[in-house]
Amino acid sequence: MKRVLIITYYWPPSGGSGVQRWLKMSKYLPENGWQSVIYTAEDAEYPVEDSSLEQDVASEAEVIRRPIVEPYTFYKRFLGMKKGEKVKAGFINEGAKKSGWKESLSVWLRGNLFIPDARCWWIKPSVRYLSKYLKEHPVDAMISTGPPHSMHLIAKALHKKFNIPWVADFRDPWTDIDFYKDLKLTRCADRKHHRLEHQVLTEATKVVTVGWDCAKGLESHGAKDVTVITNGFDETFVETHGRASLQEHQREHETLPFTMSHIGIVGANRNPETFWSAVADLVETFPETSLKPSIKIRLIGQVDNSVIESIKRNNIEKYIEIIPYIPHNQVVAEQQKSDVLLLFVNNTPNAKGILTGKIFEYMASGRPILCIGPEDGDSARILNETQTGITVDFNDKERMKYVILDLMKKHQENQLVTKNSAAIEQYSRRNLTKKYAELLNGLIQ
């Protein structure tokens, strides 16, 4: 069996979206003739942890954990954060509380001293360790996955030293990422970010990303012929954890309220202001539809203070239920207890290219999706192609109201189903891993 070294910061017990792509890919690589050698951090500072994901680690995988030094302990002590509080991406704090001078200074230090990110101190120790490891345990190919983009710099050094075929896998952009403009970069730091990004994009044997708009962005920064291999859903996971919940929900349909659920983080730039306003108009203006007593909107996961403020401002708190982060093995059941799944795209300049991993598990759940985002974006493209949902533009309140009422009417008539399109199958983790394995095979021929 061929061996591939996968350099990733996120690995169980890390929870959240960052861990899913390569946890699932490595699960199916052995049936395509590849053994995964996972190089990851030991005792890392993960935003969320989820021990249930350990069960998805392939038995064939070799997992190497190495100590990592991160600046988060100093950062949290400096800001007086409470024990157990987690640090957000880029040290950017969202929400109602305004940034003080300490937080502004911390963001400046992060952006200008920790390049490309707060894991940069792990690059040299990792290159030293893996150089010794690879001499004794050769691999046929290598994949680095970012963010954090320090993983790419580890792979870049190893590629130069050993000439191992290297795939730079971008789950998110580098200098085009949402919060890049908020890092308070000096011209010198900005040039360094772009220089390192260009080196990775031009020196990697192959560049892969998760969406078409992101691929265009990477090509504009120097990459050639970027391959798109999207995220996906794990069909065996959905079958194990979801089928009973869907049947139970269908049996209890007539006694349940019309339930719309968003699962995952709702940050400040993902706050659907117009959606909350549309819901407020509906419950106020159309009481004869019985919408008022029978609608429930569930936000499952981390919710930013600015989102809670928007809900209060629209006086719809009684229709909202906020549930903290739940383990991934409970996510599918919660999806299938819902009538409609909400997908909030970040309202940022790169919104068209945002293609979150949750969209694929949403599709596999069999529940219709209401996406608030660009109608010509990558998310809308996927939903249109698979006939699994509707996309409404960020600011189109009248259409939002129409779509919500239409979905509720179908709920009342027990017609709220999605087509079991064969197009969905191409986004299964098994099929996507097969595609990735074919790409790796092509690099070593």
Summarize the SSE layout with pairings.
Blueprint: E1 2-7, H1 20-28, E2 34-42, E3 62-67, H2 72-79, H3 101-113, H4 123-136, E4 141-146, H5 150-162, E5 166-170, H6 187-203, E6 206-209, H7 212-220, E7 227-228, H8 235-251, E8 258-263, H9 273-285, H10 291-294, E9 295-300, H11 305-313, E10 320-323, H12 331-336, E11 340-344, H13 358-364, E12 369-372, H14 378-386, E13 389-392, H15 397-412, H16 429-444
Parallel strand pairs: 1-2, 1-4, 2-3, 4-5, 5-6, 6-7, 8-9, 8-11, 9-10, 11-12, 12-13
Helix pairs in contact: 1-16, 4-5, 9-15
Can you put this structure into words, describing what you see?
This protein is α/β, with parallel strands linked by helices and 445 residues long. Helices cover 40% and strands 15% of the residues. It is built from 16 helices and 13 strands. It has a seven-stranded parallel sheet with strand order 3-2-1-4-5-6-7, sandwiched between helices. Helix 9 packs across helix 15. The chain is globular, with a radius of gyration of 22 Å. The two termini are 15 Å apart. About 6% of the residues have low confidence.
